[in-house]
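hi!! sorry for the late reply, been swamped w classes. u asked for the two structures so here they r. pasted raw, havent cleaned anything up. first the sequence of the first protein and right below it the tokens
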Amino acid sequence: MKGLVKTKRGAGNIELREVEEPRPGRNEVLIEVKAAGICGTDLHIKQDHSFYTPPVVLGHEYSGVVIETGSDVSEVQVGDRVVSPATAYCGQCYQCKTGHMNRCTAKNKRILGVSLANGGFAKFLTAPEYIIHQVPEDVPMDEAALAEPTACVVHGVVEMSPITVGDVVVIQGPGPMGLLSVQVAKAMGAGKVVVTGMSSDQWRMDIAMKTGADLTIDIQKDSDPVQTVKDETDGLGADVVIEASGAGPARRQALDFVKVAGHVALLGVQGKPTELNLDLMIEKELTMTGTWGTLPSSWATTLRLMGSGKLNLEPLITHRLSLDEWEKGFELMEQQRAIKVLFTRFE
């Protein structure tokens, strides 16, 4: 079968090549991939800016159908429509035993599409049964491939942020994580969702409005976006700010957008230090959370949300390509001309 492989360390070094079809171990399932999305992590691996262990077939945002099960698999069945997180956590380290499986410290842990486990940019992959989740019956497989980034948002927004009914939520950055945050915040009962972005993001902000945002702010055209937020909140500021861009200036502005005793949730990764005036945390009595990846509970909530019809993920899928077109897909993402690119054909 064909697989998109990061062949060795260094920038580039990605090839579409023939790879051996996997076989499931005793506790594993063999999955035929139906859709797989390009994530920012894949771009970082391509650029040699992220952790990975080559050679490895890339891709960890996927959906598929189980076509074979190992001898000790007890719950998952052939024909099941499934998704999974990337990390097969060990369950034995301190972080796992204290409920932080997303920060598992086992040196030999397998991470699909990243380290010691081939991912979804191929026709087939294997995964251990214990990380598998069932896709709700009415959820299309293309949309199911967005379960992984949605679960990341659910962890950061549902599980770690204090959004309550009627809250005003400002979301900075209308990329995939920001646009997913719009719908998740609305599902939590946010009364008003405001999305901020740059002039070049206008088409993304249009999607935000179509999927639940109440207002968008172009921070390059608005002479005082902080005042605009205050005008929308009776002079108070946002109850919760979700920083989804990873940009240093946005992180600094988050502390201005948020009200006294409000909350800032950091979802975006900058990849380098950010200079912040943390005195504002004290003066405004703020709380701030940062989150990484997902927990099993994040997936349970995500898939219930998807199955309930509360999330409309189709508008976020801007391109569907064959795996042969991988260079086009990566280019679209790198040039920010796509929200989510899916590979849906693997022959």
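now the second protein. again sequence first, tokens right under
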Amino acid sequence: GGGELFKVAPFLQQAAKVLAGAKSPMLITRASGRDSGAVQPLVDLAELLGMPVFESSLGFVNFPQNHPLHARGDVEGTLPDADVVVIMEVDVPWVPKRTGPNEDATIISIGVDPLYSNYPIRGYRSDLTLAGSPKETLTALVEAVKQIGVDTIAAKGRIEQWSAAREKRIEAIAARAEAGKDQTPINKAYFSRELSKHLGDDTILLSELGVDTSQIEFITPGTTYAGSPAGILGWAIGASLGAKLAAPDKTVICTLGDGSYTFGVPSAGHIVSKIQNLPVLFIVWNNGIWNAVKSSAKNMNPAGVAASTDTWAFTNLDQECNYEMYCQASGGYGERVDDPAEVPAAIKR
């Protein structure tokens, strides 16, 4: 029972007391949704506390993104003022160079290996460390917090506050897509909005830099996956074929940049797709650049030589390359779309 659990888990009981008394709690995750059973306990804890849930990046469906307490990924405006910060199954909850928690805040770490002991260097503070399954840990925390009791009026106020913030964010996201609908080259926000109209419980999206995920609300576990933080470029082609093997009745959609598509060895991917009868919709965002390389260099050295001279070695690609022909060569259907007005019909095809 719960009482017996708390007797042998004093840190969990202490964490529950801290959360129950929090005035401005927040939670950051990346991969707690690896176990789909962890989603509902996280919803229960967030609603109980009026606690926003941030995703440092989207690895799985960790929390329904249509929920009023889903706060997307920008922690910079919230983290310094939070009095309790829960970091769960996330290796890089924030970038220390940009932001950090208040020194008086309590940091609670949750995860199978919450301190990432196999990482050679990782310097995130943890005041209370709860090692174990997120599903079981969250379930126990919900029970413990209920036994302690919370200020329900304050929690309700926080829910209303974050709900209003979410509505404003959604309006801005929608406006960005609408503003780009006639742009050439095709605007990624607009394209992503059009793609989102075709996504649901019967689809699986694997995105490797080829789509603006802020335009999409993932609600059901198992409808999207992203690559490991250990390395992503070249991951999605093979992963999408694996997803189709695992879920043959689902429509699998793989979105990539032109650089990551090249890293994924598309010729081999399309041949396997043909031979093994694994149909996947591959969408290649051809922006003529390895932007992952450029943006990483720019973020690490914003005042460096490359940034000051706007010279990015080994990042330029040929935007005229006909990537659709890789698919055609293996007997699949491929087309190139340059006109934004053709996007809705092309996605349907």
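hope this helps!! also noticed smth abt the second:
The chain has two domains: 2-165, 180-286+321-348.
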